[in-house]
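Quick note —
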Amino acid sequence: MKHRLVIICIVTFVFLFSLTERPVFANEIKWYSAEEGLLLGKKEGKKVFMNFYADWCNYCKQMEATTFKDYRVVGALNSKFIAVRVNTEKNKEIAQQYFVRGLPTSWFLTETGEKISNLPGYVEPEMLLKILSYIGEDKYQSISFKTYLESQ
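Predicted structure written out below.
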């Protein structure tokens, strides 16, 4: 009888625990194609972070291995932006649209796909977090990035 009661309590606890909302912690960035990401940005009302790379690019690989693996960057991009990755070797037309001359290059776009600014080169996690905050909070509309950093 005691064993049955213990089993019933455990099953009830597991069932109730499964009903509660738990935060989902992603350990990687949810990347979209350019077309899919731009549509989703409009639909969800989120800004778009577009990263251009190539398989042969060492700084692109470094950014993938460090910056894009940082849990804070992952969280910021997944929650506040639609993240897009564009392989310039496979999508030359899109790279030309965004005037990509060197790699890696990242672009920030409004919810409607308008260009905000580009960010050339490898970017450390700490700096990208500051830039994501600056763009994500619409501070770029009222103050310079330098002023924003000084206020932090």
